[in-house]
Amino acid sequence: MLSHKTSLITAGTLMVGVTPLLGSPPLSASEAQSTNPISRMARIINPQLTELEQRIDALNDRVRSMAPFSPKPVREELGWRAMQAQGGDKPTLTLDLGEVYPLSDIYVIPALPPFGETRRLFPLKLTLDTARSADFADARKVYSTPANTNESQDGYPLRVNTRDLDARYVRLTVDTGYSRGDYSISMISELMVLSGGQPVSLTATATATGSMNSGFDWSPKYAIDGQSPLGIWQSGPWNTSRGQLIKLANSSDVVTWQFDLGQSEPLDRATLFPYELPEIGGTSALPSIIKVAVSDTPEPAEDSFVSCTGGETFSPSTLPLRGKTGRYVTISGSLFPLTLGRDNIMAVSEIEIWSLGRNLVSGSTPKVLVNGNPASPSPELTDGRANGHEIIPVGDWLRQIHERQGIEEELASLIPKRNNLVSEAEINATWGASVAIGLTFLIPVAIFERRRLVSRKQIDQLRRRIASDLHDDIGSNLGSISLIARSAKKDLERIHDPDTLAEDLAEMETIARESSLAMRDIVWLLERNQDSIGDFVERMRSTADRLLREMEFEMTCKSNRTALKLTLEAKRHLFLFYKEALHNILKHSKAHNVRVNIFDDRDSLIMEVTDDGIGLPVDEAGKAAAVKKLTARAAVLEGRFDVESAPGQGTRLRLEVKRANLIATKAAA
């Protein structure tokens, strides 16, 4: 186990107190103007502007789904730097891929501007040749900078599609560099050669002529190590996986990760992804010294290690294994590059080991040792995510960055054109609106009169419906009270049946109370301040408490649109549907428990009334009876009404109505 001086922490430990900056997604070109009535009118009268904004929105959507382009500093191993004396031979960089591959793409990635320079010094003109033989006797030119043009200095990679051309050797020739006195110089960060989407250049050997080498900064081998200002080949939404971070006490501590492949495999390369530390200024790091050994036993020979350097870097470090065969892969890291307080940091975000186009350790968990002592393993080291983003194939990553360049160039040309069209269209719309406003002063009386007549007609219709309700509910109840009173009078005259008289008077009391409650319901239906879905649900609850006093009653409302306003017509028919459903339960069900659910289903509002009674009576056809009124109410609401009822198994009444048929403002639905 780890000693008390050494500990291992996960990504979440360092994130305490760090709040991600979350913002709303950017508005589209059309949405940005949607609140301006003049802008809306401008788009109606100018279809070309609408089409242009739709194109801009589509391009922005594509850009947001692509790998980001955000060049980052590369502190060491910057790439290859070429120098040519006046009249001297042109500098060349030649890659030997080890065998013949069908090449799909070649990417030339620019380096960052060197200290004291404002330009990237990417070759102004260059040529790319491929060949099957080392002397390039069968060379085929696959790219040459067009005449009268210079290569871009914006940092995007140059892509050359080689269309599966078979080759073993790739040569880059600098035709024109930047004049510096008696010499011209140029530099690139990476020459990435792909075959079937796999970076075969990472396991190649590089030679050059006209190199201007410099320690750990510039050398042909640094042009094929996978490290470039473009960073890590990853994309997609953010996630919580960050890798493994270990705190060490001593500068001599060594961390080892060992993978058991299960059987001996020929290996191409091992790649380690740096661990980003936004908590201490956005630094990203790997162990300063990285070694990899391939063996058939867990204890590799010391001379079998292949090494490279890491340190503070924003790019993966790749160790070419070039066909080494073994079952065990042992990776060791030493010389921590960073400190956090009193702790020394050793961290890796992801480890990949490739063989014939496959990552053999994807999803596996390595054994972790610190100075030979077991430490806690981390499954995040091989989960395909680095620093919170998905790792994608190198070919897809470079292609997305290259396509992003074309999209952003198109956006840069379309946005000024859109702005000009907006200005012209808004001027025209303003004149049109002024004319329209002037015309409205000529017909205000007609518009007012029409609205008055329509409103009066609606009020008359509402009055007729209210009169019908009063006649049906209150008139019927008062008629019953009259009949019962006449019967009670006769019983009083006879005085021979006091029990019957008591029953008549009790029934009169009940009907009178029901008439009063019905009157309250009608008054509530007309109340303007109680016409939201939430108010309706509260009325349903109080009505059920009144009618279902002898039963257990439960109501739940899971709608998230309770603040929306119901039309008077919808409010009336919904409430009468609900009351009729409760009356059916009282008349027919003999239930003990009743449950009412209100909830949303996409663009509809659902009302379900369920009881555990004996079920509804059925007609001669075997269908549930006593639901004609419910069916009629559902039809008025243009809703769907379903009945599930079986003898002894209770009844479920389900009403589904489009929210647009209920809500006063259709847009809110």
Tell me the domain tally: 4
DSSP strand content: 25-35%
Oligomer: single chain
- Report the uncertain regions: 1-27
* Chain-averaged pLDDT: 81
Percent in helix: 25-40%
- State the fourth-level CATH superfamily of the largest domain: Galactose-binding domain-like
Query: Quick one: overall form?
Result: elongated
Structural class assignment: alpha+beta
- Write down the CATH class of the largest domain: Mainly Beta
**Cα gyration radius (Å):** 40 Å
CATH architecture annotation name of the largest domain: Sandwich
Compute the number of helices: 9
- Determine the N-to-C terminus distance: 62 Å
Number of E-state strands: 30
CATH topology of the largest domain: Jelly Rolls
Major sheet attributes = 9 strands, antiparallel
Enzyme class: transferase
Domain Histidine kinase/HSP90-like ATPase: 572-659
Catalytic activity: ATP + protein L-histidine = ADP + protein N-phospho-L-histidine
Domain Signal transduction histidine kinase subgroup 3 dimerisation and phosphoacceptor: 463-527
What does the secondary structure layout of this molecule look like, with pairings?
Blueprint: E1 7-9, H1 11-14, H2 37-45, H3 47-64, E2 80-85, E3 92-110, E4 125-131, E5 140-144, E6 158-176, E7 178-180, E8 183-195, E9 198-199, E10 205-209, E11 234-235, E12 244-248, E13 254-273, E14 275-277, E15 283-295, E16 306-312, E17 317-334, E18 338-340, E19 343-348, E20 350-355, E21 358-359, E22 367-370, E23 373-375, E24 385-386, E25 389-391, H4 394-440, H5 444-494, H6 498-526, H7 533-547, E26 552-557, H8 568-589, E27 593-601, E28 604-611, H9 628-636, E29 640-645, E30 651-658
Parallel strand pairs: 26-27
Antiparallel strand pairs: 1-12, 2-8, 3-6, 3-8, 3-10, 4-5, 4-6, 7-8, 8-9, 11-25, 12-19, 13-17, 13-20, 13-22, 14-15, 15-16, 15-17, 18-19, 20-21, 22-23, 24-25, 27-28, 28-30, 29-30
Helix pairs in contact: 2-3, 2-4, 3-4, 5-6, 7-8, 8-9
